[in-house]
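Quiz preparation item.
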């Protein structure tokens, strides 16, 4: 693991995989603490470096990557999320608020019924990696 991207509730989140990049800016990606604890990160404002983050089970991540669950449901089916406003001084100075999922600003999500597409071999390989980890660790959920 390399660079720490966020620190939430004392846990350091490291980049695992970039799902969507726009103009060399990661817009939608996965961070992890370890092999079976993942977080989905959605950039809500790249000019101001603001992010919406959910903790996601391997099963939910696998279902989203493999087109079994749409992106919107993957986010909104969780119990809570974190709104992070990054600070130029580093992750330890970020402004982080934890919220109930009912307060999630859903206008940043795709419409219901829009699924993630594995559009190249690299993305397919990442989905296979997640599927393998799910088999290894079982169907445990890490929802809060």
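Solution:
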């Amino acid at each position: 693991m390399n660079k720490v991207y966020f620190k939430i509730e004392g846990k350091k989140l490291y980049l695992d995989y970039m799902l969507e990049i726009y103009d060399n800016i990661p817009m939608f990606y996965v961070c992890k603490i370890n092999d079976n604890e993942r977080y989905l990160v959605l950039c809500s404002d790249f000019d101001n470096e603001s992010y919406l983050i959910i903790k996601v089970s391997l099963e939910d991540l696998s279902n989203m990557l493999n087109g079994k669950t749409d992106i919107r449901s993957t986010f909104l089916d969780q119990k809570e999320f974190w709104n992070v406003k990054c600070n130029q001084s580093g992750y330890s100075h970020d402004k982080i608020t934890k919220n109930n999922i009912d307060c999630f600003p859903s206008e940043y999500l795709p419409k219901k019924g829009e699924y993630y597409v594995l559009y190249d071999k690299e993305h397919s390989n990442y989905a296979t990696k997640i599927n393998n980890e799910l088999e290894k660790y079982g169907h445990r959920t890490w929802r809060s």
